[in-house]
Amino acid sequence: GHRSVDSVAGGPGANDDRGFSPLFTTAADIERSQKDRMPQDFEIRDPKIMVLENGSVAGPLSTRYVMSRLDGKTESLRMIRPYVPKGAPLRRGTKAADDGGGGGAPTQPGGAEPGKTQQEQFALCEIVNKFEAFLKEQERKQRKKASAKPKTKEMELTWSISEHDLQTKLRQLGGFLAKGMKVHVVLGRKRGGQKVDDEAMRALLKRIQREIQTLDAREVKPPEGEVGRTMRLHLEGVVKKQT
Questions:
Q1: In terms of Cα–Cα distance, which of 151, 169, 152 is closest to 207?
Q2: Number of H-type helices and E-type strands within the chain
Q3: For residues 227 and 201, is the Cβ–Cβ distance under 8 A?
Q4: What range does the record give for the signal peptide (predicted)?
Q5: Domain total for the chain?
Q6: Amino acid 159: pLDDT
Q7: Strand ranges (DSSP E) for the chain?
Q8: DSSP state of 239
Q9: Quick one: which of 6, 152, 161, 232 is 20 to 30 A from 89 by CA?
Q10: Dist. CA 199–CA 224, nearest whole Å
Q11: What mean pLDDT do residues 133-144 have?
Q12: What is the CATH number of the domain that holds 47?
């Protein structure tokens, strides 16, 4: 038959050179796995875990037992904090070795050094609803995707824009581009606005393009449209690194 959890965790040869069973998953193990999430369900090999459900923590419990009690269709076991062995450096800001349901035996005389965990902390896992967890993960991915993309702004100017308004718009444009944003500048006619000759309109376009060069921004594709009618400039800024 299967060995008990206690025999798996403490049997002869169960510990490796780390001083604890290799079945326990530490933060370093997760980092080495190069996954962008913590272990879940049968990926959790720890013999014992603490379990968070409906706001309360229970344990340490046999992982095999916890998995056997799950409704496989609707529930999932997710690790939210990995195993911390006795003697590991205390995380900054913690008052004690156990920051919420670590489990393990009380500190013995001659135990771990000050500044290190006085007892092992079993991994903290949570029982979640699979559908709710799926929706949360989708939201997380969408947020990550959105934050990775440069934000886009559209700025409208008329060919007959006044000097004061132009300076204001150029300052705004500089602010957007300095943040690495994409900006679509739309130049167009204003109904009932004063007429502007071709030379003045070309001068306005050159001035905007000089400003783009000054800001180390770039035109991501050639301008669309024509001078005097509707013209679109497609710009992208570059975030300057702090030196």
A1: 169
A2: 6, 8
A3: yes
A4: none
A5: 2
A6: 92
A7: 48-53, 56-62, 75-81, 124-129, 152-158, 182-188, 218-225, 231-236
A8: P
A9: 6
A10: 19
A11: 87
A12: 3.10.20.80
Secondary structure element (H or E) that encloses residue 6, with its range: helix 5-10
Residue 212 resides in a domain: yes
SS3 56: strand
Q: Are residues 131 and 181 in the same domain?
A: no
Q: How many residues comprise the chain?
A: 243
> For residue 220, what are the CA distances in angstroms to 125, 157, 181?
47, 19, 12
pLDDT of residue 242: 56
CB of 48 within 8 A of CB of 60? yes
Percent over 90 (pLDDT), the chain:
40
CA 243 – CA 60 distance, rounded (Å): 50
**CA 227 vs CA 141, 156, 164, 169, 204: distances in Å:** 42, 14, 21, 19, 10
Do 208 and 188 contact (CB within 8 A), yes or no? no
Cα 31 from chain centroid (whole Å):
15
Q: Give the model confidence (pLDDT) of 16-41 as tens digits.
A: 567 788 899 999 898 888 888 899 99
